[in-house]
Write a structure and sequence with these properties.
Elements: H1 2-17, H2 25-36, E1 44-45, H3 47-58, E2 66-70, H4 84-90, E3 97-98, H5 118-127, E4 135-139, H6 149-158, E5 164-167, H7 170-175, E6 205-206, H8 208-217, E7 227-230, H9 234-238, E8 257-258, H10 275-284, E9 293-296, H11 303-312, E10 321-324, H12 327-334
Parallel strand pairs: 1-5, 2-3, 2-4, 4-5, 6-10, 7-8, 7-9, 9-10
Helix pairs in contact: 6-11, 10-11
C-alpha cells in the first residue's frame, strides 16, 4: 500500500509540474537536431528557415555545416543565352557552392545529364568542398524559382547523401532581403575533404530498356499499371511544339500524363505549391497514389520537380516513385513513331 501511495504521489507531482513550464522552442529544436542529426527538418525549406539555421551554425562551435548549393541551369534555347554559372556569379547565397549539371554527369553517354558514376560524383563533392556529413540546401536561380534544384537534390539522394533539402526558393530569399554576394567565389583554405565513393541506389532510377517494355505493354491485359508523368510543356507533350534540341521529335510515350511543372508552381513567387494544392492537381489528372509512378521530362532535370511535388503532397509511397534518367531526349532518339512509341495529339 505504501509503495502504491508513493508512485501515485510522484505521478501527481510530475503531472502538476508539466503545466507550469513547457520546454523552450529552441530546446525542442535542439532535441530534434540531436535525434536525427539535422538542423533543418523538412525536405523543402523556406528562406527564413535556412537563414536561421545558417546563423545558428555560425554562432556555435558545432562541426555541423549547412552548405547552400546553387544548381542553376537553363535550357539550351534560353532566349537570353544565360548559363547557371553566370547567374551564380551575379548573385548567390554567401558561401554557396555551384553544382554544374552539364559537367557532373555521365561523360560516356551521348545523352545530357545522365547520372555520373559514383566515383565522379564523389570527386565532384570533394572539388566543391562538400563533406558526407554536411547538410546541403540546393537552390535555383532568381529567374526560374524552382527548376533544376530538385534534380541535384535527387541526384545526391541517389548516391546516399544523408541530409539534403531544397530551398523554396531563392527568388523569395532575395525579395525578403536575405544576404547575397556576387563575383568570383573567394578561395577557401579548408581542410582536406575526403568524400567517400558512395553506393548507388538503383531503386530510384528507371533505365531505357525497362521504360521501353513499360510503354510496349501499356494497355495490355495483365500488364503492371505504371503511371508516367511528363514535366515538359503541354505543347511538347502533345507534339505541337518543337523540342529545344534541334532535330528531336516532340510527342509523348504511350499512356503518359502531361504534368507541366508550371502547374505545380505559384505563378508569382515560382515556389512549389502547398502539399494540399499539389495533391488536388494530381487527383484531378487521374493519378492514382496506390500505383507506381515514373517521372520524366526532357533530360531528367525537371522530372525531379514532379518527384518533389509528389513528396510534398505525400502522394504515393516513396518506394513507388522513380525517375526516368534519360527522359525524352533519350527516348525520342531510340524509338520511333513507326513503333507506336512516340505519340502525338491530333
Amino acid at each position: 500500500m505504501t509503495w502504491v501511495v508513493m508512485v501515485f504521489t510522484l505521478t501527481c507531482r510530475a503531472a502538476l509540474r508539466l503545466p507550469r513550464r513547457s520546454a523552450p522552442i529552441n530546446s525542442l529544436r535542439a532535441l530534434r537536431h540531436s535525434s536525427n542529426g539535422k538542423l533543418l527538418q523538412s525536405f523543402l525549406v523556406t528562406p527564413k528557415e535556412l537563414a536561421t539555421a545558417l546563423e545558428k551554425t555560425s554562432q556555435t562551435s558545432s562541426k555541423s555545416r549547412i552548405i547552400p548549393l546553387c544548381a542553376s541551369w537553363f535550357l539550351p534555347n534560353d532566349p537570353q543565352g544565360r548559363t547557371g554559372l553566370q547567374v551564380f556569379k551575379e548573385k548567390r547565397i554567401p558561401s554557396a557552392r555551384f553544382f554544374d549539371l552539364d559537367a557532373i554527369r555521365d561523360h560516356d553517354s551521348q545523352y545530357p545529364h545522365m547520372l555520373p558514376t559514383a566515383e565522379d560524383f564523389a570527386r565532384a563533392m570533394r572539388d566543391m568542398g562538400i563533406r558526407k556529413d554536411d547538410e546541403v540546401v540546393v537552390y535555383d536561380s532568381v529567374e526560374l524559382g524552382l527548376f533544376s534544384a530538385p534534380r541535384v537534390g535527387w541526384t545526391m539522394e541517389v548516391f546516399g547523401h544523408p541530409k539534403v533539402h531544397i530551398l523554396n526558393n531563392f527568388k523569395i530569399w532575395v525579395e525578403q532581403g536575405y544576404p547575397t554576394e556576387s563575383g568570383e567565389p573567394a578561395a577557401k583554405a579548408e581542410e582536406k575533404n575526403e568524400y567517400p565513393v558512395p553506393d548507388f541506389n538503383p531503386d530510384m532510377v528507371v533505365r531505357f530498356a525497362e521504360m521501353r517494355e513499360i510503354a510496349k505493354e501499356y494497355g495490355k491485359e495483365g500488364s503492371e499499371e505504371m503511371q508516367v508523368l511528363d514535366a515538359r510543356s503541354r505543347g511538347r507533350w502533345a507534339g505541337t511544339e518543337a523540342e529545344p534540341r534541334p532535330g528531336l521529335s516532340s510527342g509523348h510515350m504511350p499512356g503518359s500524363i502531361s504534368v507541366p511543372i508550371g502547374e505545380l508552381l505559384d505563378p508569382g513567387s515560382k515556389t512549389l505549391l502547398p502539399g494540399t494544392e499539389l495533391k488536388k492537381i494530381f487527383e484531378e489528372k487521374g493519378i492514382d497514389p496506390t500505383k507506381p509512378i515514373i517521372s520524366s521530362c526532357g533530360t531528367g532535370v525537371t522530372a525531379a520537380v514532379i518527384d518533389a511535388a509528389l513528396r510534398e503532397a505525400q502522394f504515393g509511397s516513396k518506394e513507388d516513385r522513380r525517375l526516368y534518367d534519360g527522359s525524352w531526349t533519350e527516348w525520342a532518339q531510340r524509338v520511333s513513331a513507326a513503333d507506336g512509341l512516340i505519340q502525338k495529339e491530333e
